[in-house]
Amino acid sequence: MSALIQSTRDWVDARELPLDEQDLPDLAEATASLSAALAQETATMDMSQVAVPFGEVLRQRAPAPLAPAPAPDADVSIDSEALVRASLAAIERVAPGKLAWVDIDADTALTEARQRDDERRQGRIRGPLHGMPVGIKDMFDRQGHTAGWGSPLRRGSSPASTDATIVARLRAAGAIVLGTQHMAELAMSPTGWNATYGPGRNPWDTTRVSGGSSSGAAMSVAAGHVPLAIGSDTGGSIRLPAALCGLTGLKPTQHRVSVAGAMPLSPSLDCIGPLAWSAELCGHAYQALAGADPSDPSCLNVPSTLGEPTGQLRVVVPSWRDDDPMSAQMRHALDEAVRALKDAGVECRTIESPYPFLQRAGQLASILLAVEAAAMHQRWLRERAEDYGHQVRRRISRGLLLSGVDYCDAQRLRAPFLQRYLREIQGDADALLLPCTPDVAPLVETTVDGDQARLEREFSQLSTWTRGINYLGLPVLTVPVGEGAGGLPLGMQLVGPPLGEDRVLALGRLYQQTTTWHTRRPASYALSGR
Fold it and tell me: What is the mean pLDDT of residues 389-406?
């Protein structure tokens, strides 16, 4: 190990990389582990195997869509102005309160609410989101505002000249963007930790983390501030806070929703999606967001539908190993979920645990994330290192030590890994059932101070069931599935085939028609008046 650390030090010195001496041993060990995992996978790879546009890989492997579900009836009784005023009042009185928010544009929101009410009275209802107050993660451009990205590095940046595509589409669907929300610094923490603005806190128990990096999105919905929020997911950042806060969250297929006007973290892995109480509302939000965008050439031009199952839905269920990382309560909750799905007519087929495969996919995803994030941040790391929190600076700096060959090989392996997953694990099933986290939300105090290497290992465990899915590019719906210690929420993932949002949303709606976990609320939720 001393030789490895010295070679890393020589590499850093020769290239004048902005790395802290104290962090070098941990960074050297972490990158060596990733490189070793990659080497095992590339040992038998054919030299003719090249990286191909992954969006096209996903499109080619997508099954035929389900028949579309019927459009919901418009609710003509909603008072949008009253909803916005209720949201503003709830933010003031329901924990974690304003911690969940960065910038609230109350005057603009009230003006838009009155406009939506006028449209409703005239019979011009834009869809299920018409007049609904919505929060967005502080990483999306809004015209005239500066997205903060959860970091002091953005202070003084020029306001955006246009809305991000997802903001424009929310407005076009009639939603009212109330403001921007707390996020983990630069979207780099699965717990919701932010060194500048404080940790994300869980409305079920504010001594617990909210999950991240879409921390404010989960906090605001679980507290009853808004019924819907939009986050992003690069390794679990929609699903983790949704699960830990008792919500439903959708990570769409890679390249299904435009990222134009969104903060980039790892363009190969970044996804944008909704968090809400129900699969139904997540589906409506997804339909409003998805679709081709000339401002984002990577965005797939594929119609988005909410599936109406025309036959029996099929789910593959792992036979869990004793060492699969999950608590006894989580295992029990998943067993009960399988029973509920079977009672609802879903065919459940047992497979071997996919955890070893997902772990390897997660390591390959970590290479893509590390290198792409480091490439985008290297100038700020050199010029403004003091504006990064230590945890985040360490995680981003890791990518400076990985080679271009490793990055290229991780991209080359992506299509074969997806093909292997579909052949050996999911098959022709509509979804794979997985836990979202090993257990309930950890205590904030255990995720803040102490040995950084220990914290990183624990962070890695929190997202151990989610990271690999981003490498595969697949859609995932996370739904509440039970309760653990202290009555805290537990979440389950339903992983669909490429472009299979219709399938996981159909399964989520079916599951939530026959169970009540998604109707549970934190004790403080009643104060929101919703």
Answer: 93
